Amino acid sequence: MAQTLLTLQKNKLNFMKKLFLFVFGVFIASTLLSQATNNLVIFSEDGEKFTLFLNSVQQHETPESNVWVGALNAPAYKAKVVFENASIPTLEKTIYFQEPNTEVTLVIKNKKGEYKLRFLSSTPIPLEYVERPNQKAIMVVTEPIYTETVTTKTIIKDNGGDNVNVGVNIGGVGVNVNVNVNENISNEVIYEETTTVVTSTGGDHYIMQGYGGPIGCPWPMDPHDFQEAKTTIASKTFDDTRLKLAKQIVASNCLFADQVRDITKLMEFEETKLEFAKFAFAYTYDTGNYFKVSQVFDFESTVEELDEYISGY
Question: Within the chain, which residues score under 70 in pLDDT?
Fold first, then answer.
């Protein structure tokens, strides 16, 4: 009887031990799954440099030929590759991560001048990152990055001479000559230039260096996307078509005032320009600079009508 009770106790202990190990294993597995991330590698087979965008967010500042992105935690990303060589068309592809904790590699191939983004491999994430030659390694950027270069000039030396106006009459023709007189002084202006690179990331809206006016929308359109949009609009033959396309593009984006001005210039007729300028005001970041758009109009009456529209907006 005692031996039977001892056997039952041992069986109970073994069962409890197995149950504990099972529960602990499930806990560890669920923890790892909740922290699961993926890596992405995109490289150019022939060394063409590019800028990578994931879900419309630029991932690095300068063009690279090989990019490694870590800490991707979404099941899919829309990738866009914009080449440094503007003659190469932009590539777009949706990348799916079928399994957690995998590293997906894609290669940019050039076949007779036609570039394609092809799947190459999918492997388990290595325990630690292995540095590769000429590879740019970054952690995924989820909020837009904007970089501005601001250059300021300061005069530190100005040896200006005296100006003397001399009137000369030759053969009944009066000639006015402006002569700069210097007495042993070199007429020289020396500037000191200071260049500052300002990077803005995160926050609820873009910070425009030197601008403190009202903001109409938070994140201005990516410069590469804007150039593509501008080229597409300009390719249309008729003003009505250009206007319709421009409205479609602007309605789903945010533009700087000078970008609105540049698109308005693409319109041929004053009436079309005005209609677009009125429409685009609601999708402009620096609305305080909207006076720039008025530069494209031929008539004062059009400028006045736009001003009235903005005042009553």
Answer: 1-36, 143-204, 209
Note the Cα 56 to chain centre separation in Å: 8
313 near 248, Cβ under 8 Å? no
Task: Look at the domain 38-142 and name its fold.
Answer: Immunoglobulin-like (2.60.40)
- Cβ atoms 60, 67 nearer than 8 A: yes
| Burial classification of residue 4, based on how many CB atoms lie within 10 Å of its CB (0-12 exposed, 13-18 middle, 19 or more buried) | exposed
Domain extent listing, the chain: 38-142, 149-198, 204-311
Mean pLDDT of the chain: 78
- Among 210, 190, 180, 216, residue whose Cα is nearest residue 198: 210
**Separation of alpha carbons 125 and 105, rounded Å:** 11
Q: State how far Cα 223 lies from the chain centre.
A: 6
Measured distance CA(219)–CA(252) in Å, rounded: 11
